[in-house]
What we know:
Blueprint: H1 2-27, H2 36-48, E1 81-89, H3 110-126, E2 128-136, H4 137-150, E3 157-159, H5 162-170, H6 192-198, H7 214-217, E4 220-225, H8 226-231, H9 237-242, H10 248-258, E5 275-279, H11 283-289, E6 296-298, E7 304-306, H12 311-324, E8 330-332, H13 346-358, E9 362-368, E10 382-385, E11 399-400, H14 418-433, H15 436-449, H16 453-463, E12 466-467, H17 470-474, H18 479-489, H19 494-518
Parallel strand pairs: 1-2, 1-3, 5-8, 5-9, 11-12
Antiparallel strand pairs: 4-9, 4-10, 6-7
Amino acid sequence: MKTSKFFKLISLILAFILLALIFCSCGDKTDNSGNDNNKENNNNNNAQNPEDSPSDGIESESTTEEERLFADLPEADYDGHEYNILTIGIPGSEQWENIDLSAEAGSGDVVSDAVYRRNTAIEEKYNIIIKEDHRMYDNFFSTMQKEIKAGTGAYDLFSPRVIDSSKYMQEGYFINLLTAPNIDLTKPWYNQQGIEEMTIDDKLFIVMSDILLSDNDATAITIFNKKLLQDYGLDDPYTLVKENKWTVDKLYQMAKATSKDLNGDGKMTPADDQWGYLIWTDAMISYLHSGGQRLISKDSSGLPVVTFNTAKTYQVMDKAFILLYDENITGNVQKPEFENAGSESWSERESVFESIFTSDRAAFSWVRLYMIPRLRMMETDFGILPVPKYDESIKGYPSTVNVHHACTLGIPVTTDNLDRTTIIMEALAAESRYTVQPAYYEVSLKTKHSRDDDSAAILDLILSNRVIDVGDVYNFGGLGGDFYGLALTNDSNLASFYEKHESAVLEAINKTIENYQKLE
């Protein structure tokens, strides 16, 4: 009898234990199908390619918390090696200065502190010292040229602007990153769409990564004055974005409603009147991209091919011209009438823009993301939007990375220890994704400088739909730069424009392919 009760008790205890294990298993169940890294890469590829992106509204996959990935690198001790990075400065454009490679401890700035933490982590792990050699424009290029000629191995990385890189890529200044050891370009800390665009003949010489912030800063956006839109009883633009209805036609309608000749002199003047929309000439390429078009694309062999001269491109830009060229609505701050005391200085042009926008005399403006912190003292609330798309058939909201602002990284062929250079580069990129990028993005932009939760969510959408154009990078035959310049004279004859450039463009493409095929 006692034995029977004992076995019943044991059976009951075992049943409870089994039941508890079943519940725990259900509670912890996860989908482990496939490779985690591949899932991360697929998400990133979808985000970087707007035509494949599902992100039509404010909600974005990038708002979900990301599981941390780690670089697959060997342990190493580099005996106090100075890891030297040559960076570029642009005279008169202090706002473009690097804030992402060197920093002092305890600055109090959230981004600088994150840069310091990242650098310290990598310095301590590999026993190195990270040094930035920052040189202004001409000095940067002469220093780079001297290093390649002398072959001293003084620099581990070069960091030029994207637009300045094409000449030096073709002249063999950089290591092919596709064959370099220790660098995993499929990882999310590298810009996948940029890799696709800048790879020619299976060679990639520069890359945009999470180490730098300038490609974020260079991303085109729209800002709007909340007070003016409320005063005129206009639609909520956040709702328009969310409903996939933020289009060129809608912006034109709203900009037209808010443009006003305040002094009644019958003409629009920068100092006196209220603009519906402010732009820079760089907005031209944004509207080409937001219509799903490119200056130059890649063929099935991965080589550049002209796609600008198409009926669809002309259709997309004809609609954009209605908005961009209507001088009763839109002010181009790079036109002569916007000059400040006759100066061509970029920073003074920006001051003119800031004066107009912060004094509630512009409802909307095309700017790059770096402008947001500069408006932090503005009394009136403003919001952040993507550049409007051509129509509702365009997937997502393609957002241009401006090649005149974004910097990149390349490894000089003179490096005296490629393993060391690539290990540190990969380690910096991986660490940056979880330190510097969150500080810039989540804390600085979304919390410190955004005026509302909707703008913060819009930032996710914008940065997950970034676009860079191989034709903009290489400026074949001057096509990209001259395309921007059409906005200075309101020239809308694209067929004639392309006809004038066609032979030079085709020759430049062929020459570039030839140069690449000569390189290792």
